Amino acid sequence: MKKSRKYFQEHPKISYLANLIVMIIFIWLIPYYLLGNKRLSYIIGIVAAVIVVNLAGAFWYPSFVVKSKK
Q1: Residues 63, 18, 53, 26: is their CA dihedral positive or negative?
Q2: Which end of the chain, N or C, is less packed with Cβ atoms under 10 Å?
Q3: Which of UniProt's keywords are assigned here (predicted)?
């Protein structure tokens, strides 16, 4: 987990892409196809997406933070 977090901090564009893919999968695809099209399934998808993103360490960093680290 620490290695992935460090990798994503060094490569912010890949972090953005990984975060976007996880959010799309967990907020749109999984609730719609596996859990049915209900309000509770989208809430579960959002919670699962946040958990997976936090475990992977793929966060959205503000651009001024990324530019200041260079």
Answers
A1: positive
A2: C
A3: Membrane, Transmembrane, Transmembrane helix
